[in-house]
């Protein structure tokens, strides 16, 4: 299952939506933002490329975890399969959780047999059964779990409300907002680090792997 | 060609009650091949590589004119009724895929790849179908149409394979009047081609091997084996999701790129000094763990360099290079980024991964030169990105855009008129008589398709003729060295010697002596131009023993090449 990481990045970089092919490995982009060069990794969701995950995340200043708001399973897999890939990220790495494909929610056009996984572990959802649309609250619950997993204090990092987004790469809804909110948060941190200690990188660079999910269909 | 006709005739004269619903099932599971009337081939020695045309053609004769997908899909419905097991297998394949399929439709680039109606006449009359399935009969890939819709048809294919297998034999091909079916088993995967093209079974088998190799390039052979060891009924599409496009483009390429047919790489024609300086540039832009450096333009090779120690193991194989360039061409979503991905080169080592760094060079799209660097180190991305910058700067310094863009008319190429023989319309030339270290990367050259072959359909026709002649030259039973073939609209000559392999196409009114004269002239021309047409001395470099990345390496390599 694809959640639309490449489309999301493509929308931001190229200002348009384009059908993409499944990402092989990862793709590295440089984005000129204000006077900074931001490095962005677009990673593959497919399981076979998870071996590379640690490389993308090493030294990352921010990580965007992406799920599909129409598939609860994609959010669940963020936790089950992708969270462990972020172990190599630095301790002050920011996490953002992005629910993409919001344009598909209203009429739920397309497949309606969303996984009726008993995903009740994570929180409060309006529609009790077979949720068609993943609630923002679920994403926030995941955010808090990530903090716990990384042993961070909730008070020292941005609040869940500020780090969970819903976007549509197709319409462009919220896409710039996600990236630029993160850049705004992350650039000062990097500048401060550079001022403090010997820099590890030449450029002001941070990596931001968008992570995601594949539906594990059981045979 | 003759063989095909003969076999078709052999299978035809056994009339049978047609339309018997029990028939396909019974044949596929119970009937003895030896019992097939009118097909003595089937009774032959049960060698594993024996062709079994009679035995298998026989069950199909409910449609006396031809056998093919039409009949196969006709059978499938029967198969469903008769064979519960196969039906279940089909279902099992379908269930997990439902979500997948709809999702893929969304993913795939515009084009009705998956929506094609597999029951329609248009689907049946495709020139060539290619299917990939697992040993459990689970569909993995179909060139046309959604493979899920074909799970029953694939079940039938698997039934044919297993039936022959149960007699300690292997099904290789089925011939009918107008179609050739080729079966190929590679580990836990079964590949099937159903073709109306003039390709021989051997050529189709090569193509299937290519499809298999492309799957291996994504997953490795060991990886494929592993998932099926764990679960025989595994749905491999879970791992291949998104790779269908790569397989599509490979098969498309096989239809229009002679490189697949000849097992050789086409080089971009370039002035030798320019190519040499590009090679030197690749030698300069190295990093530890770098094994191969390749500059390519589309499916044309510009130059390639190889690490010296790796070279001792193995020279880059043209088949691997085809796969790699196909992968690069088919999967670059947008060209701004730098890709880092594990890639397996099946001929080099089917069980191991390289890490491929892929980036297009130059800001403008005047010339789409692509740099591919293969490293053995998973973490080498940033080092290789550094190499790319060196190459990019070097290209600028060389004024590469001027040479490569050829004044805005696309990549450098040449027309057949350059040879100066009016009778000659087109040719493919693959040399063997080249310096030692170059022999291992087979190359070929051919002019643009012009004049009568400018249209897609005429080009296809010419290719079909080349395929036909190639099949005759390399026929396993009766190989030939020289063929002079008068076709309807042109005259062709195919010639293989220890020094070269040549296919030349002349206007239809050429005389034999005229053709010989033209070929002589062509050979002389190629000899004169070979520095421009081919990579004569592929560069090498060392990355293993310390950083030999500077000036000295260059001179060193020049000495090493020795010529």
Automatic annotation (TrEMBL), chain A:
Primary localisation category: membrane
The reaction(s) this protein catalyses: GTP + H2O = GDP + phosphate + H(+)
Cellular compartments annotated: Cytoplasmic vesicle, Phagosome membrane; Golgi apparatus
Gene Ontology CC: one annotated term: Golgi apparatus
The enzyme's E.C. designation: 3.6.5.2
Classification via SMART domains: RAB, RAS, RHO
Cofactor: Mg(2+)
InterPro entries with a match to the protein in the record: P-loop_NTPase, Rab20, Small_GTP-bd, Small_GTPase
Pfam family, one: Ras
UniProt topology in membrane: Lipid-anchor
Keyword list, A-Z: Cytoplasmic vesicle, Golgi apparatus, GTP-binding, Hydrolase, Lipoprotein, Magnesium, Membrane, Metal-binding, Nucleotide-binding, Prenylation, Protein transport, Transport
PANTHER family tied to this protein: DRAB5-RELATED
Family under the similarity heading: Belongs to the small GTPase superfamily. Rab family.
Protein name: Ras-related protein Rab-20
Organism: Sarcophilus harrisii
UniProtKB/TrEMBL annotation, chain B:
Membrane-crossing segments per the record: none
Domain of life of the native organism: Eukaryota
Residues covered by the FUZ/MON1/HPS1 third Longin domain: 424-530
Positions with biased composition (Basic and acidic residues): 78-91
Domain (FUZ/MON1/HPS1 second Longin) ranges: 289-388
InterPro entries in alphabetical order: FUZ/MON1/HPS1_longin_1, FUZ/MON1/HPS1_longin_2, FUZ/MON1/HPS1_longin_3, Mon1
Annotated segments matching region Disordered: 1-122, 544-563
A single GO BP: vesicle-mediated transport
GO CC annotations on file: Mon1-Ccz1 complex
Compositionally biased residues, Polar residues: 554-563
Pfam families: Fuz_longin_1 (PF19036), Fuz_longin_2 (PF19037), Fuz_longin_3 (PF19038)
Domain spans labelled FUZ/MON1/HPS1 first Longin: 128-250
Function (record text): Plays an important role in membrane trafficking through the secretory apparatus.
PANTHER family: SAND PROTEIN-RELATED (PTHR13027), VACUOLAR FUSION PROTEIN MON1 HOMOLOG B (PTHR13027:SF13)
Similarity comment: Belongs to the MON1/SAND family.
UniProt protein name: Vacuolar fusion protein MON1 homolog
Gene field: MON1B
């Amino acid at each position: 299952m694809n959640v639309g990481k490449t489309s999301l990045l493509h929308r931001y970089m190229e200002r348009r939506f384009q059908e993409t092919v499944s990402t092989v490995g990862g793709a590295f982009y440089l984005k000129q933002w204000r006077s900074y060069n931001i490095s962005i990794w677009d990673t593959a969701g497919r399981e076979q490329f998870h071996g590379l995950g640690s490389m993308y995340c090493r030294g990352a200043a921010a990580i965007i975890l992406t799920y599909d708001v129409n598939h609860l399973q994609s959010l669940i897999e963020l936790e089950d399969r992708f969270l462990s890939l972020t172990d190599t990220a630095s301790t002050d790495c920011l996490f953002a959780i992005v629910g993409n494909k919001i344009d598909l929610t209203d009429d739920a056009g397309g497949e309606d047999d969303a996984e009726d996984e008993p995903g009740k572990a994570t929180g409060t959802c309006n529609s009790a059964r077979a949720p068609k649309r993943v609630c923002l609250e679920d994403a926030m619950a995941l955010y808090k779990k990530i903090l716990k997993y990384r042993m961070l204090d909730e008070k020292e990092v941005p609040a869940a409300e500020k780090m969970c987004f819903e976007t549509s790469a197709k319409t462009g809804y919220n896409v710039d907002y996600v990236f630029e909110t993160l850049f705004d948060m992350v650039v000062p941190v990097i500048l401060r680090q550079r001022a403090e200690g010997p820099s590890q990188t030449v450029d002001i660079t941070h990596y931001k792997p968008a992570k995601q999910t594949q539906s594990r269909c059981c045979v | 060609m003759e063989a095909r006709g003969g076999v078709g005739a052999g299978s035809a004269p056994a009339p049978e009650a047609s339309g018997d619903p029990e028939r396909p099932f019974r044949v596929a599971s119970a009937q003895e091949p030896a019992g097939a009337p009118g097909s003595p081939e089937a009774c032959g020695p049960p060698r594993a590589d024996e062709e079994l045309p009679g035995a298998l053609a026989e069950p199909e004769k409910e449609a006396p004119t031809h056998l093919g997908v039409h009949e196969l899909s006709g059978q499938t419905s029967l198969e469903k009724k008769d064979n519960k097991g196969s039906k279940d297998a089909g279902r099992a394949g379908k269930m997990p895929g439902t979500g997948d399929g709809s999702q893929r439709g969304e993913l795939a680039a515009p084009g009705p790849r998956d929506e094609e109606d597999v029951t329609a006449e248009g689907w049946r009359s495709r020139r060539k179908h290619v299917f990939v399935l697992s040993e459990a009969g689970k569909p993995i890939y179909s060139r046309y149409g959604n493979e899920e819709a074909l799970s029953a048809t694939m079940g039938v294919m698997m039934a044919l394979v297993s039936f022959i297998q149960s007699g300690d034999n292997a099904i290789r091909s089925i011939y009918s009047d107008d179609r050739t079916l080729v079966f190929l088993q590679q580990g836990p995967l079964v590949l099937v081609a159903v073709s109306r093209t003039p390709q021989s079974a051997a050529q189709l088998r090569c193509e299937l091997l290519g499809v298999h190799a492309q799957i291996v390039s994504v997953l490795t052979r060991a990886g494929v084996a592993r998932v099926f060891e764990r679960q025989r009924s595994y749905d491999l599409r879970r791992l291949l999701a998104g790779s269908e496009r790569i397989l599509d483009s490979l098969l498309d390429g096989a239809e229009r790129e002679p490189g697949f047919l000849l097992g050789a790489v086409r080089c971009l024609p370039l002035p030798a000094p320019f190519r040499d300086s590009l090679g030197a540039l690749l030698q300069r832009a190295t990093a530890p763990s770098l094994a191969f450096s390749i500059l390519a333009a589309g499916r044309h090779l510009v130059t390639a360099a190889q690490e010296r120690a790796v070279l001792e193991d193995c020279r880059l194989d043209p088949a691997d290079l085809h796969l790699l360039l196909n992968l690069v061409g088919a999967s670059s979503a947008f060209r701004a980024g730098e890709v880092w991905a594990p890639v397996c080169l099946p001929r080099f080592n089917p069980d191991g991964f390289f890490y491929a760094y892929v980036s297009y060079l130059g800001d403008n799209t005047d010339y789409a030169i692509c740099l591919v660097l293969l490293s053995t180190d998973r973490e080498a991305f940033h080092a290789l990105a550094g190499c790319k910058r060196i190459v990019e700067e070097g290209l600028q310094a060389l004024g590469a855009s001027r040479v490569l863009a050829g004044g805005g008319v696309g990549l450098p190429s040449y027309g057949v008129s350059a040879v100066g023989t009016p009778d000659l319309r087109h040719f493919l030339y693959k040399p063997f008589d080249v310096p030692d270290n170059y022999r291992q990367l087979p190359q070929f050259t051919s002019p643009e398709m012009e004049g009568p072959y400018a249209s897609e359909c005429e080009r296809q026709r010419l290719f079909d003729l080349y395929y036909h002649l190639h099949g005759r030259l390399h026929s396993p039973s009766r190989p030939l060295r020289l063929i002079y073939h008068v076709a309807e609209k042109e005259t062709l000559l195919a010639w293989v010697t220890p020094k070269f392999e040549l296919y030349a196409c002349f206007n239809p009114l050429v005389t034999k002596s005229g053709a010989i004269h033209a070929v002589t002239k062509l050979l002389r021309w190629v000899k004169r131009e070979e520095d421009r047409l081919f990579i004569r001395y592929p560069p090498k470099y060392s990355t293993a023993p310390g950083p030999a990345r500077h000036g000295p390496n260059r001179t060193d390599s020049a000495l090493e090449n020795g010529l």
